Fold each of these.
Amino acid sequence: MAIAKAERLMNLALCLLGTRRPLSKRELRESIEAYLEAGSDDSFSRMFERDKDDLRELGLVIETVENLDGEVGYLARRDSNRLPPITLDAEEAAALGLAAKVWQQARLAGAASGALQKLRAAGLPEDVDPYEAHGALEPRIPVHEAAFEPLMLACRDRRPVVFDYRKATAAHPGTRNVEPWALECWRGHWYLAGWDRDRGAERVFRLSRITGKVRSRGTPFTAPVPDVVTVRETVASWAGEVADRSALIRLRSGAGYPLRAKATAVRELGEGWDELEIPYGHGLDAWLVEFGPDVVVLEPAELRADVVDRLRAVAKD
């Protein structure tokens, strides 16, 4: 049925775009096979009106013209349905390609492909490939978490959500009631920023720690939503981007290159280990745990204790 309707809409659009004069409903019925197969005039009329409305909703400008005899005709002028050319510079095309790659890994792959096809039809030059990497290193933003799509839609529609969340220091997950603000990617991981209703404060949640399904709630938001810049600063702060101190760690040689890139000082210790001084902010303990036995925290003592607690919680699972 869907294929038959799509074919019917395409035939109607081609007829309206290809004519130089308005075509009456009678002429359109005689030109399109699906309309000829309509059981009655009333059935055809209802089908035609629905199709005409669908094409207009898709963006086709259809004019209704009455001739001297009082007969109503329809046409879609090409100049009224021609979009201006779309130009993208290298940076804009790269950003578009990166966004498309995010959706390609989620269930929105079809929508992403359709959007790019529309851009092509609207004048995006063929030699500009949004999927092509613009540089020696190709950025990647993986979307593997099942919670990504429902949370993205909840952020868009401003719908509160409920999900089970396991903190890195907890052996079992707990229920969170959240008003979602935005999703942000940081160091290859997705984070949700929002208002935690139970705690009455803003919180940031790492999607990989959400367990089970994300359930939506029909109640309205109770807290104001900050602007996007503030949300990004919140995620960066919680994920460890904002640092006001330094930490001293021991790192196995040949490992932990992201840590080495952040280091303000590096000293070789020998026997396969290096000593690094790195910025210390909220979330550093969670990041260090990801490197497992390749990292040993030397100081400060509270950071070392936090990392040990997280490792013990992981070992209990």
Amino acid sequence: MTVATEASAAEPATEPKGPTLMQRMVVRPEIGAALGALLVFVFFSIITDRFLSPLGVATWLDDSSTLGIMAIAVALLMIGGEFDLSAGVMTASTALVTALLAVHAGWNVWFALLASLVLALLVGAFNGWLVMRTGLPSFIVTLGTFLALQGLNLGVTRMVTGTVQVAGIRSADGYNSAGWVFASTLNIGDARIQASVIWWIVLTVIASIVLVRTRFGNWIFAVGGALQNARAVGVPATRTKIVLFMTTAFAGWVVGSCSILRFASVQANQGVGLELHYIIAAVVGGCLLTGGFGSAVGAAIGALIFGMARQGIVFARWDSDWFMLFLGVLLLAAVLVNNRFQKRAERVRR
């Protein structure tokens, strides 16, 4: 017995093996989008020489950036289990408020930007509060907000200017400094990188840190995955979702500010229809339509795929109508891939 006991004690304890590299990759929601982006990049790099030229790179990064800024915020909201169909029209609403106050009311551009930011955050907070207060689907609530904002954009702009366009902000006080923040360019070799690209990168980093390194990020996954369970363990679900709706509104303000200060004019119907593109970019980036699963980096990559494909088609001199076919195929493929990755991720975590 003593010999047997000593032999047993001498045997090294077997430690459970950790997940393999492949298993760790499967857990990441953005892995499918990263592979898709690599495929699109290689394909258009071969098809057309313009794609990798300095002008070409700057163009598809520019195209991706404003979509990416919104897609990141929409992805956080979708992980939290909600949708915001007013995200697209919010970009026009904030730009119009900024332009009307700066051009027609004589405000300094910075004060006009602050006023439009306050409006955006109030609308976002209202959306979140109404969804949580009434229990109505966010699809319905934000559809109502979308229609209301679209009507206000058209009605107020036509009443003040007599048209559906506001222009002339370049002559307003504070334009130069505000334009440097939201509409300047960074020259890297022959490439002119827009300020919106910098905003896109910075917001992606911030959103990723918040999502995976903070308590609030845990709350987002909790309210999106199982709302009642999250409430049962003390997660402030109402506050979390209101903040998420305010985040999409803030992103709309950033995009609207970049647009009005770069192009110096804004149309009242600008941004209408783009909300679906934001959702598609988030889904391509790994977000599930059912909530509780997704990635800010993945949404940024999903927007990058959009920009590369849209500009790649132009560079290749194809009919731009093919882009809609690409979007349809991409969305269906993303949904199928995301469901598969989510199921594998659940098995790995167990």
Amino acid sequence: MNQVDYLRISLIDRCNFRCQYCMPEGSELDYILKQQLLTDKELLTLIKEVFIPVGFNRFRLTGGEPLLRPRVVDLVSAIASLPQTQDLSMTTNGFLLAPMAQSLYNAGLRRINISLDSLDPATFDSIIGNRGRGKWQQVWDGIQAAYRVGFDPLKLNVVAIPDVNDRELLDLAALTIDKHWHIRFIEFMPIGNSELFGNRGWIPSEEIRQRIRERWGLINSQIRGNGPADVFQIPGAKGTLGFISQMSECFCDRCNRMRLSADGWLRPCLLNEIGQLDLKTALREGVSTAELQNRVRHLLAFKPEINFKQRYSGTETGNYTRTMSQIGG
């Protein structure tokens, strides 16, 4: 396996959207109470005194919706200013981004992923579970603001869903032709929502690639990301097309990440719940950061076995105690 040096950090489990694939309609979500969240001080202690010493130097801030986290700009600044931080990025739905984009950039954030599952406002609202005022335009404004500020790369995440947004996939791919935008097509994952789209809730990446080949052609890109995406380009395009194919094309051998939930649980594999560590409780009970380093190192050594031998244990049984929003994506 690759060296595991990339930590996805959920700042909050709450969100101002309720996307079907993340917060399934009808599911009762017990949000983490404020006192159960890692505080800024606790999170920074874990980053500086546990994660960096065991080899993590790339961090992505996620949610829920991370821009809902109080003082998020200050937190970005604190992480970005650490000399060991080689990369700091964020995944957001973009709804609150437009007025915050410049401040986040000034604080040291340079890479950002924005979820955009549809270019059609009505389809977009149906995916995000919106029954009120349309939200697509404000997300689009956030994307444009991030582009103006200078985020590079600016990535747009698309969860491809049959009979929902599959008619738009070529239109979304076309956004990469004239702008330095990078589209990431993501196969829907049945994390806590296995019945959501029936037996075939995801579109294999190769099927999407073939559609693009037939329209424009498709070549391997020289640009690589920090994650598991296979990256291509439409010939002559300014941006790239990435495919995250966790359902149809196993990339466990390339996994370089772990996930830290907003309440301090370290998860070694997204596809199952084996081996999780409750770092917040240990920290609050006075366990030394040296001992926490040892526990994380042990989990890092065990991670390949979790990834390969237990890869499908969750998706086959549907046995997840948390939805994607509660895990941190």
Amino acid sequence: MHKGPSTMVRVPKLTRAAAAQAVRNPLAFIAERWTPENRTVRIAALTSLVMSCVIVVTGGAVRLTGSGLGCPTWPKCTADSLTTTAEMGFHGYIEFGNRLLTYVLCAAVGWAIIAARSQKPARRSLTRLGWAQFWIVMGNAVLGGIVVLVGLNPYTVAAHFLLSTALITVATLMWVRTADGEGDATPRPLVGKAVRQLVWSLIVASGLLVAIGTVVTGSGPHAGDSSDVPRMDIGAVGLDWEGVSKLHAVLAWVVVTLTFALWFVLKAVDAPPGPLARTRALFLILLAQGAIGYVQYFTELPEVLVGAHMLGSCLVWIAVVRVLLALHERPRTEPGIPSQADPELSTV
């Protein structure tokens, strides 16, 4: 019987010099032996972004189930145990499970860094964005420990969420920058100055919306623990939760109005399809988020809807960042790739 040619690939032997290099600089060692396709890098960046949102939602689950002090200390779960124990029950499992997801997030960010570092030609901007995510994760892990050690102080909890939003921002930026055709050249505007100013107004309003949302949570009924956790106050006066919630709703309508105005202006100036599509997506996400917000308000904040609203907050912010990034193009430096930008737009 005739045997066909062998399809087995011989694995090169790991020499002593190569092993030493792997120890000294593992990223360079991997990059010399692996060249991922751009699709792989994009998937890695998307995985990091998804996990950045998952960790926010699971953190919300910790809060909404009253498990914020399920592990009463940090970095251990108890004074004598690194992990949760059976005696700690449901809340211990929820809190410790959220802590374990931090390692999954680190793995996702690590994959994004390795994939970006190994891509050829090298794009240092992507690697830097990956490392920025890593350091934000490390900082937020420490801040999360502080949150536990200070007994879920609402201001530290708000800072914990805002730092997670910063992580989502960087992860979104990296994901968008991995798109096909996206390079590292100097960004060129696709719309005029007036439109860009309108978008920056949208960014500021959306940032305020997210920040005030943390105040709504910090002064509301979901304290994150079954015991009495202090709520946000000004001096000795507690914040009016109803008033803060109404301010949050007003800001939401401001963001919706700015988004609709942006969509109208983009249609009027015959903008490229990219900014239009992302603005339309943002508008639809805002409508869904607003519906959830009003339903949860009038149904006395059921936990499931509050969790959905936290996920919606992540999606709204991602959509806002993507609108901002759609206003410019960064073409690759290789010749032959046409630009969508119109030089006259910079003066419109």
